[in-house]
Amino acid sequence: MNSDKIKELIKKNHNYWQSRALNNELNTILNEEDYLRRLKSIYDKASKDIDDKVAQVYARYAKENKLTMDEAYSILPKKIEKEYKNDLADYISKAKSGDPKWYNYLLNQSLMRKHTVLDELRTNLRKTVYEIDNENTQGKFLEKIYTSSNYKAQYEADLLGQLETFTLIDKDKIEALLRENWSSGGGFSENIWKNKDQLVKALDDILVKGFGTGDSYEKMSKALAKRMDTSYKNAMRLIRTEASRMSTQGSLAQYKEMGVTQVINIATLDDRTSDICMSIDGLIVDIDKVEIGLNAPPYHPYCRTVLSPYYEGNEPETRMYRPNGNGKSTKGRYRTYDQFLEEELGDKKKAEAIRSTRNDLTTLLVATASLSAPKPIEPDIKYTNPNYESELPDKDRETLLTMKGPTINNINSKLSNGEELGEEIVKKIEEIDSALDKLQYYNGEVTTDIKPGNNNPLDGLGIGDIWQPKKYLFSTKKNKYYDNAKYRLVIVSKTGRDISKKISNYKINKEVIFKRNTKFKIVDIKVKNDTVYYYLSEYIDE
């Protein structure tokens, strides 16, 4: 179907698409409410489990109804120590496919010879927190929202004769969307980890403070329950905002397939709409300039604004309102929020303020259009090597040819261990650096594996931390180096040297080399089939 035909169909069915966009938002909210009821029950159970564990410790060790700091740090009796070590072994076997931080914590506990009452309690609380499987359950829920939104748009397009072929959802695209740092506050997975880590830290703080001040069991229990409720509310806010984003992304993907060139923001016309959504209502955006949070929803937590296809000069004829704050909808002629405020509610001052904000935003978008494009899911080719030489000098080619094997292994070992470098090695490093500086940068995803039996160089680091290896780091454009790697690093390269383009020895493995002391930021950690995946992005001080 050609673009003119699609435009004609959109023109004739503009009211229809706005109605479907609002219905899709309602469907998303109903799905959220169902999911959040289940999530609340998970948190309630976790809160009760924590309360039971604290009660057991108080009953076992506390004098009267208080537990002192000395009692908290007392060594476990032999029988309890044996039970605790058995629990650790059981937890470790279950943690292999879960949270790497929890797994590492358990390993450290298992290596300790003696444990305190506080160790036992902390471990039990951590077990409860990390069993709140936020990432898996919420990730699947968001995948459902994206899929539902996209398939609904395809279904509606098919009803109007605008669908040529049915497109299946790309799971890799959904994973990329979940990792995307669209709000500059971290990706979905990163925020889930932050929520868990903050909860663990808060529970630890409550315990230590409570023991230090001699808090009663009742006071300690209330403080822990309150913090669990706060964590649930944080998770609820995150899931609702992310559900709105995934719904928008799912619809946008199909709008683009249909050949839609512009979309319009539609806010909910009632007394609960935020000031930003009042101002954004009616804003028209070129679809290739859509940027979530800037000119497309969600604009804030619990955002209800939606996007709909737009065809210039053919606004809808009618629109639904909820003017009296009673939740009842009334159909009237089409108006934007500022027009509704002025004409229906008589609030001219607020209407003028909304128009002013919308004009300011439109001016800002026009001014920044040439400065920033929508954030790509795949890395943009932004980084290019100013020293790149299309014809590599023979001397540099020879240096890179001999870089493999014992030579580089010896250099990397000394660099990693901080050993003193002899004059010959210093000269060799200078030659390698000079040769690498003439290679093309690779902008894209690469992988490097930690060989079985080797220590994990990222042990102890978490999401958001910076890792800076002292050695040269070898990676591949393929999805793995080894079949049985225990740790796999998936890196978004910006300045990795694309050595496979120039040197035949590196072509088989499609290798990319990072210079020593390159910085990487950990953006996510997952465990798949007993392999710990670290997702990193090359970090550049700019």
Question: Could you describe the 3D structure shown?
Answer:
The chain has 542 residues and is α+β, with helices and mostly antiparallel strands. It folds into three domains: 35-74 and 116-240, no CATH class; 261-368, no CATH class; 394-539, Toxin ADP-ribosyltransferase, Chain A, domain 1 (Alpha-Beta Complex), CATH 3.90.176.10. 51% of the residues lie in helices and 13% in strands. It contains 16 helices and twelve strands. The strands form four sheets. A five-stranded mixed β-sheet has the order 6-9-12-11-7, with no helix packed on it. A three-stranded antiparallel β-sheet has the order 2-1-3. It has a two-stranded antiparallel ribbon with strand order 4-5. Helix 2 (14-61) runs antiparallel to helix 7 (134-159). The radius of gyration is 29 Å and the shape is flat.
